[in-house]
Amino acid sequence: MLQKTKGIVLRNVKYGETSLVVTCFTEGFGLQSYIVNGVRQASNRGTAKAACFQPGALLDLVVYHNQFRNLNRIREFKWAHLYQHLLSDVLKNAVALFCIELLNKSLKEPEPNAELFYFAEDALLHLDTAAPAVTANFPLFFALHLPVFFGFRIADEYSEELPYLDLKEGTFVPEQPRHPHFLEGRAAEAVAHILKVLQPEELAEVRLTQDLRRSILQQLELYYALHLPEFGTLRTLPVLKEISG
């Protein structure tokens, strides 16, 4: 049955001579994989079509949807939003790819989750036009707010009495945990600050050094691995660290 939905491209893999298998997080059906025929033809038109399926692309789709099939087909596609900077700016693109990989590794089942879709879509749109100070803190914002949708959000209870962030438990605690997976000092304080941020523009007020951002991101990768089975490591994180330096 033909259905209309918006989709965020998560990844693509070459299929045959001219086609792609595309993984999308869709507004209507959640995580889905599609065959897109004839988009890798050696022509200007083919190149333009294939460009629509870059990770992070926001698309309007008409798809054949069968809930009992693991692989459906895309009938029609077009840009839902033409980015101004996200695909061409090296740092913004690295941040976007980090967010997309984090989302892709967190999604396990093809279940609709419209609120999560709107969060991810809104994040990409904000990142596209974000000021440099906002872009710098954006990976932390996305990584700290995404767990809300997967049931392992960090409880925002930081205080002088609860100064340690226990990454195993996802809570701020009064004493240093008896394991190495925790944040303290400025790192814990920064996490608490970003947990309170509701609009990305407010990230400009969070003053952090590059080294501290990198350290927190490394610990957040561990946090995801502790709470999501088979999470592994993020391939985009070393690239993001290198570019943001």
UniProtKB/TrEMBL annotation:
InterPro entries linked to this entry: ARFGAP/RecO, DNA_rep/recomb_RecO_N, NA-bd_OB-fold, RecO
Keyword tags: DNA damage, DNA recombination, DNA repair
Annotated Gene3D superfamilies: Nucleic acid-binding proteins
Top-level taxon in the UniProt lineage: Bacteria
Coiled coil region boundaries: none
Domain DNA replication/recombination mediator RecO N-terminal, chain residue ranges per copy: 1-82
Pfam families for the chain: RecO_C, RecO_N
Function: Involved in DNA repair and RecF pathway recombination.
Similarity remark: Belongs to the RecO family.
NCBIfam families documented for this protein: reco
Annotated protein name in UniProt: DNA repair protein RecO
The organism's taxonomic lineage, starting at the top: Bacteria, Pseudomonadati, Bacteroidota, Chitinophagia, Chitinophagales
